Amino acid sequence: MSKNPRRLAEPVRLIVSVEAEVVEAIDLLMTQGRHHRHRNRGEFVRLAVEHELARCQSDDFLSP
Question: Superkingdom, according to UniProt (predicted)?
């Protein structure tokens, strides 16, 4: 998983669609400055995808 979005070895553009309410919630979170790594929507989505991928690949995910 990457740690710095500007230093991706082989970046690939991923286009996603979400409800307007989700975008509004992300924007609100960023304007509140509650999390230092949420600098823009793309960074927020990249971190969310990496987090979910790690969760799905964990051993606990396969357990009943």
Answer: Bacteria
* Close Cβ partners of 3 (under 8 Å, ≥ 6 residues apart): none
pTM confidence score? 0.68
Cβ-based burial of 27 (10 A; exposed 0-12, middle 13-18, buried ≥19): middle
- Would the CA dihedral through 32, 38, 42, 48 be positive or negative? negative
Is residue 35 included in any domain, yes or no? yes
Rounded Cα–Cα distance for residues 7 and 53 (Å): 19
Q: Identify whether 28 is part of a domain.
A: yes
Structure confidence by residue, pLDDT tens digits, 3-21: 665 677 888 888 999 999 9
Domain count, the chain: 1
Domain assignment of residue 24, given as a range: 18-62
